Structure formats: structure tokens, C-alpha cells
Amino acid sequence: MKIGKLFKRLLLFVGVLVGILVLTAILVPVLFKDKILATLKTQMNNNLDAVTDFKDIDISLFHHFPNLSVGIIDISIKGKGYYKDDTLIAAKDIEVTVDIMQAIHGVYDIVDVDLNTPRIHALVNDKGQANWNITKPDTTAKAATPAQPSSFAFKLRKYSIENGYIEYKDDQAKMTAIIDNLNHNGSGDFTSDAFTLSTHTTIDALSFAYGNIPYLAKVKTLVDMDLQVDNKSSKYTFNTDKIQLNGLKLATKGFVQLPDTINTMMDIQFSTPSNNFKDILSLIPGMYQADFKNIQTSGTVALSGFAKGTYNSRQMPAFQVNLAIQNGMFRYPSLPSAVTDIQVKMQAANNDGVPDHTIVNVEKAHMVLANAPFDMHLLLKTPISDPYIDAGLKGRIDLSQVQQFMKLEAGTKLTGVVTADVTAKGAIAAAQKQQFDKFYAAGTIGISNMLYASKDYPGGVALSNMLLTFNPKNVSVSGLKAQYLQSNFTGDGTINNLLGYYFHKEALSGTFTVAADKVDVNKFMGTSSTPQPATGATPPPATTTPFLVPDNLDITLTATVATVLYDKLTLTNVKGALLIKDQSVTMKDISGNGLDGTMLINGSYSTKNDKKNPDITMAYKVQNVDIQKTYNAFTTVQKMMPLGKYISGKLSSQLTMQGKMGQDMTPVMNSLTGKGDLLIINGVLSGFPAMQQLGDKLNISQLKSFPLQDIKNFFTFVNGRVIVDPYKFKEGDIDFEVAGSHGFDQTIKYGLNLTVPRSMMGSAGTTMVNNLVNQAAGKGVTINVGDKVNLAITIGGTITAPKIETNLKSLAGDAVNNVKQQITNEIKSKTDSVKRVVKDTVTAIKKQALNAAAQELKNQISGNKDTANKNSLDDTKKKAQDAVKGLKGLFGK
Question: What three-state secondary structure class fits 809?
Fold first, then answer.
């Protein structure tokens, strides 16, 4: 009996203990999460010269029980200085799993490290600055003390990377590598001085280019490799034949060593175990498809190479890649023709590791396409400093025969003939300096009767004729005849610096003259007829991104178009120029007929300073355009000139403005600032709710609809409002004076001085005036109303739901000047607010500096000189920097 009670108590104790442990496992992450989160962010930012952030952390004993898992969610590391706009690393989460029992005894046994969906952008600019050099130097002075044994023990069993994307771009070495959908794992005893690291890697698309020559393009990659790791010398040795690039298998051996944080030493050799031509064929883009295994091939291939030496920001290892193809042939069983007589001999070599000493020599590249031979050769030397080329291209391709030997995507149509006979030899710099005795180029590339259609271009792109003529100075384009989206184009022009553009990424310059019969801009932009959201409804998020203007183009395009269709607008006899330069597109003297009038437009669109919200400018001059057609054609006009809905007739206008473009490629209305004028030549105002109300109130039907003739006003717009300067006009026996503002949100604030003959006012109007006189008399103000009544009217509310206030001018004052003064006060208030904040911020900086200086003097007098000096100066510097940051933020706004 006593044993039973003891057993029950034991079970109760165990249950309570388990409950406490479970409760602790749940509560500890919750109770200390915020503190851990803040500490981790602080430590990362203190030790990294970068902007680091993450959304959350996840601490749990249940994910991998009984081990402890710590996850960092949505982490990002962004550079500073030159790389302030580039993200080095971003990842969905990083999870570390630790053996909790070992950790209690001081041994950090990391069971697993998982990196989920990382996005890594490793960049080196043309000055050799790498964006991954973000660790802050340790400036703490360390006294020389005997090394003490550490109680800290660290173990790592395995790690993995899932769905990774890595981009490496070295502008200095002209090298680019992209790894898309990387899945990699490794395991081993990382605590040993020497151990075997077993790795497995798959890559969906591997691309590599050097000197603007693509060596690999979206290659599917598989690597199984055991690395012999020597931790003492940081040396990794390998020997494997389990590497596959698409269908090509490679064997490789050698080592990679990291003697310090700057240099990487290597000695690597590789070759193909097989000499089957089919293996190397798989590396050609578009060839490695689902039915590639059934392709028939013959011929031999030999591929080998090495990389030996040191790699750092200034040099690369010596390397050599040799490729030879003899008597190659391939044919798809389901297609009638084959590509035959494929002969290739090429070598890419660098003997000393100096990037500029690389030589690429395609000595021979020959093939027969549908019984038509095609040949090329290329010698490239000194690719970095002054590229020297000796290249040639000769052959004829009947595009209609391509589908006889090459599988095309379903729905693809391809016809036409391309002929080429081009040679070029010499230093590209000589061509740029117009030293044509040192550079030779001649020949032509002609295209005739070409048609290309696919699922992306269902309507097809037709190029019925074009001839490119090469000479040492440039490339001329002549006889262009093309059709796209039911538009017919003709043109000619010149292309300059083609080789400098290709090898040095210098600006490609050119001039073109193009003519078209009709251009439907809606089709070119892919504009759809998706219904707009109802008024007040939240618009859907933007799914487009702004067009980024290339930074290496200098193109002048002069065009004439018989008809241009844009949204609801039709323009005819359009002519003008487009200049593409310095990441900007400039419209110059674009003129045309439309909206029953004429127009002249100048403007610009630039992504140089802002990629997300491009800068725009515009200056237009329109004459004799139809008001209703203009209002209905442009959403921008509807916001800037909402009264246009109620006016029919003709107008002329001039306007200049600047602002921002949204990501949906429409102007950000509240960013627009500018000024202009508007002349209503002749028209009729009818149906405007404000005048409808006023007409009823005064019992004057003439106010509800009246003609407008030669009425000109001037306006400015800023902060989402159009401010109209005072202007006067007369209609019959009624005198008008108007001024005020309206917002892009359709709110209105207008003042109207109205002089009306009393005889025009009916009984309702007369009664209203008499009531106003009596109200004034009741306040001790005597007003004599003569034959003409001077009224001061304020109009508020919105365009469609206005609010009218009517009073006698002698009692209420000048409505126009009152509204004008209100607008002036509002603008001044905003300006004064900015000035006040600036003043307060500057005062705060001065006050912080004075307080810090006083404290510094006090510390030195008390003898705390060194500590006071360092801490006080650091603190002063930080406070001043914080205040200046606030000031910068203010000016940024």
C-alpha cells in the first residue's frame, strides 16, 4: 500500500517536472524573444559595415526535439557607400539546430544549418571594390598576453542551401556568373583538423561569361564531390568524375586553398571522360530539351583545360580551355534534315593570370545548314585594355529551312534569308580614334523577307528588307522595311562604336530616320481594357515596373508617323525627334494634329536618379483643340481641369511641368509642379453644379448656361492643387471676377465677385438680397443697393457637390481677394513650418555640441582626460550625426 502511494507520488513528480520543462520550452522563447531580437540586430549592425535587418526570430525546442532550433526570418544585408542601393544577401530564413544537452556542458554541437531561399549578389566594381567587404576592423588595442585555453567548443555536422540564387559580377575582370535554383548540402566533422566533406549540388541554370563571351548559358548542373579538408592550411582537395553539365560529363581533380582573406590559390585540371559529340552539343542553348536523348549524332569531341595560380581582386589564375570537334553531325529523328560537317577548333588561354593577357582563338568554326555552308573565325587579344580582333563571318541561312533540322517552340513561324560576308581586323581603339589605317572592316549582312511569329509575338514581326554595311568608321543601316503590330516602318541610319559597346560597354551611338504609316501605342504598351475600380474603391496593386532607360545608349531617332493612336486619342502628321542618352529619353519638337487642333510637345523621361519613380518633364503648346475631346482623352486633364467636363468649344493652352512617374507608368499627380495658361477661344459653360445652384439662388437662368469668348487665365499647380490667378470677363450685363484653386482630388475653393443688374433678378433673387440688407441693418450696418448688385460668392465642396455661400460685397468684402489670401496663407504656413523645423533642428545641433563641449571640459578638469576625450567626442559625433540625419530627412521630404 505504501509502495503504491510512493509510486503515485513519483508519477506526480515526474508529471510536474515534464510540465515545467514543456512550459519552460514554450515561455522562454516568448518571454525573452524581444530582448534576443534587439540584441541580435544591435550586434549585427555593430560588427558589420552594412545595413542589416530581419523580420523575426523563431526559437523552439519542438521543431527538432530534443535539439534547440533558432531561426532568423526574412534576413537582409544591404551595403553602404558605393553599394548603398545593392542588397548583398537576402534569405527567407536561416535555421540553426543545436544539441541542447551538449550546449549545457559548454560544447556547441550544431546539428544542422539550413539556409532557405537565399539571394546573394556578389559585386566588384571597376575599381576593384567588393560589396562583401562589410566586416568592421577591430580597433581595440590588445595587450600581448599568454594564450589561455578556451572552454568554448564548436562542432558542425551538416549544412544545406535550398532554392538559392547567386549572382557574381566582376566589372574589373569582365566576369559574370549566375547560379539559379541552387540546392546544396554537405556533411562532415568540422571540428577535426582533417576530414572528408561530402557534398551534393544541383543547379537548374548555370551561366558564365568572361570578356563578354558567354561560355555557359543556363546549364543544368549536377556535382557530387568529396572534399579532403585540411583546416590548418585551409586547403580543399578533390578528385571526382561525377560532374555533369546538361549532357556533358566532366572529370576534375586538384585543390583550392584559402591562405588568407584576400587570396585564393588553386590548381585544377578537368577533361571529358567521353569523346561523344552529343555531350558537348547539349551545352548549346535550346538544344537540351526533353527529347534530346533521342537525337542522332556522330563525330568526336575533345574538351580539356586547367586553372592554376592565385585569384584576388587584381589577378586571376592562369587558365586554358581547349575544344576540338571533328566531323560533327546531329539530326532529330522526327525532322527531315541534319546539320553536318561541324568542325570546331578553339582555345581560350591565359598564361600568367593577368586578365588583359587572355587570348580567345576560334581558329575554325564550320558547319553545313540544309546544304548551305556557314563559316566564322575569331581572334581576341588584350580584351581589357585595348581589344584587338580578327574576325570573319560568311554564309547564307534560309530561315524557312531551320525547322527542317531544329525543333522550334510550338506555334513558331520562321521564314526569310540571311546572308553574311563580314570581316574586321585591328584594335578597337584605333577605330574609335578614327585611325582607319590601323583598323579594317568591310562587308555586309543582309536580311530579306523575314517573318518571325511565336506565342510571345502572335501577330508576327516582319522584316522584308534590311542591309547592314560595315566599314572602319561605323555600320550603316539602309533599306529598312518592317511590319509589327499592323504598323509599316521604313528607315535608315548609322550605328557607331558597335565594337566599343560590345567589348567595353561604352555608349552605343547612332542616328536613325524612321517613317511609319500608323502606330497604335496601346498595342505596343500592351494596354488592356480592364475596367477601372469604382470610385472610392482601392485600386489593385501595380503589376508593372517602370521602363529603365539603358545607360550605354546615345541614339537620336527622327520619326514621322501618319497616324498615332494612344488611349482615346488620334494624332495625325506626327513628326519630331527622340533622344536616348544618359538614362533619359527626351522628346524634342514632337508636333501633330489632333483633337481638332494642333500641338507641340517637348519633354523628358529619366531613370538616372530614381529607378522606381522616374523623373518627368513636359512642355506643351496646343492650339484650337476641342475641349470635350481633350477632357475625355486624358485622365490627367480630368484631374487638372475638371471644369472641362461642363465646357464645350475650343481652347488654346501652354504648360510646363515636372514631377514623377509611378510604377504603373502614369504620373504621380501630387508630385507635379508647374504653370501655364489657358485661353477659351469660344465655348459654352453648361451643367456646372456650382453655377446651377447659383442660378437657382439668384433666380437668373442665364447663369446656368452661358457662352465663353476669348477668356484667358493663368495657373500654377503644386502639392496636388491648381491655383488660378484672378481673371475677369463679362457676359451680357453681368460682370465676373474669378480666382481660387481646385485639387486633383476634385475639391474646390473659389471666390466669385459678381455684379448683376437688379432687374435681371426674379422675385427669389430680390428677396435674397433684401434679406441680406435687413440682416446687415440688424447689425447696425446700413447698405444701399442700387440698380446693380455687387455679390461676393464663395464656392467650396467638390466639383460635383459644391457648397455656395452668397453675400453682399459691401458686407463680406472681396471674395476673390479673400480666397486668394487664404491660398497664400496656406502656402506660407507650409513654408514657415519647414523653416521652423529647420531652425529648431539647427538649434538642437548647436545645443548638443555646446553641452558636449562643456562636459568634455569638466572631465578634463577632473582628470578623466583620455576616457573623457574618447567617450565625449564619440558621443558628440554620434549626436551630431543623428541630428544631421534628421535634417537630411527633412530636406529629403
Answer: helix
- For residues 240 and 270, the answer to whether their CB atoms sit within 8 Å is no
Instruction: Give dist(CA 335, CA 370) in Å, integer.
Output: 12
Asked if 339 and 329 touch (Cβ cutoff 8 Å), the reply is: yes
pTM of the model: 0.67
Q: For 257, phi and psi rounded to 5 degrees?
A: -130, 140
**8 Å CB contact between 586 and 569:** no
At 104 the three-state DSSP class reads helix
CB 580 within 8 A of CB 555: yes
Whether the link from the prior residue into 214 is cis, omega within 30° of 0, is no
On whether the CB atoms of residues 385 and 356 are closer than 8 A, the answer is yes
H or E segment and range at residue 884: helix 865-892
E strands in 382-507: 388-398, 413-427, 439-453, 461-470, 474-484, 487-496
Dihedral angle sign, alpha carbons of residues 13, 18, 23, 24:
positive
CA distance 885 to 456: 48
The single-letter DSSP state of residue 319 is: E
Query: Which three cell numbers, joined as nine digits, stand for 237?
Result: 582537395
Size of the chain, expressed as the number of residues it contains: 893
The single-letter DSSP state of residue 629 is H
Q: Convert the pLDDT of each residue in 111-165 to its tens digit.
A: 778 889 999 888 888 777 888 777 766 555 454 455 454 444 456 678 899 999 9
- Asked if 215 and 209 touch (Cβ cutoff 8 Å), the reply is yes
C-alpha grid cell, residue 165: 540564387
Judge whether 151 and 134 are in contact, CB under 8 Å. Answer: no
In tens, the pLDDT along 540-564 reads 444 456 778 888 889 999 999 999 8
If you ran DSSP here, which 8-state letter would residue 541 be given? P
Cell for 832? 514657415
pLDDT confidence of 812, banded at 50, 70, 90?
low
